[in-house]
Amino acid sequence: MGGNYGILPPGDAYAGQKYSYPQHRPLNKYVKTIEVFHCPSEQRQDCAGMPNTFPWIRFGNSYNFNLTFHYPGPNDFINTLVGKKINHVKRTKKLIMMGERAIHYWDGVRAGTENPKPRFPKPFLGHANDQPWTPVLFCDGHVDYIYMTPGLEGADWALVD
């Protein structure tokens, strides 16, 4: 959902930064309203080098695709849906396609970790008293509101196929 970068104009709070406003993202022209990608209860957070901003403003989207995660540790990467066609997904009812940033809450934290702590000191949530609850879209098209737990899989959801 990102797209081509522009340079913010003088007078903008982040003037000179590389990024473009949501209305200028190349894929957004294919939907009737770009507000479909904007969470109305989104809160300010630190986003990719821009402190105290909204993901909607920084990324042009309040939601994250399930592409890559740090797992099993913060310096390891696992690709999830990168380069995968939807018809190659085996568990479409369980595999998360996209969700709010809470899907990264336990990024790099193994399942079964005793007294787990989120990877980021100030998790970027904003819902349910900053607990890792998030609306998610699954690969079969259904949506749900789920609680993220450490690891790559919960009872009714998965980040890897």
Brief sketch in words of this structure:
This protein has 161 residues and is mainly beta. The chain is built from 1 helix and 8 strands; from the N terminus they run ββαββββββ. It has 2 domains: 61 residues, no CATH class; 84 residues, no CATH class.
Write structural notes for this entry.
The chain is mainly beta and 161 residues long. It folds into 2 domains: 1-61, no CATH class; 64-147, no CATH class. Helix content is 3%, strand content 19%. The chain has 1 helix and 8 strands; from the N terminus they run ββαββββββ. It has one helix spanning 55-59; strands at 45-47, 50-53, 63-65, 68-69, 78-79, 96-100, 133-138, 143-147. A 4-stranded antiparallel β-sheet has the order 3-6-7-8, with no helix packed on it. A hairpin with an 8-residue loop joins strand 4 and strand 5. The longest helix has 5 residues, at 55-59. The radius of gyration is 16 Å and the shape is globular. It starts with 44 loop residues before the first strand and ends in a 14-residue tail after the last strand.
Draw up the topology in text.
Blueprint: E1 45-47, E2 50-53, H1 55-59, E3 63-65, E4 68-69, E5 78-79, E6 96-100, E7 133-138, E8 143-147
Antiparallel strand pairs: 1-2, 3-6, 4-5, 6-7, 7-8
Structural Rg: 16 Å
The helix/strand class is: mainly beta
- How many helices in DSSP terms? 1
- Look at the structure and give the mean pLDDT: 75
Head-to-tail CA distance between termini = 22 Å
> What is the H-and-E element order?
EEHEEEEEE
Overall geometric form: globular
- Number of β-strand runs: 8
Low-pLDDT sequence parts:
none
Helix content: under 10%
Strand order of the largest sheet: 3-6-7-8
The proportion of strand residues reads 15-25%
Kindly give the count of domains: 2
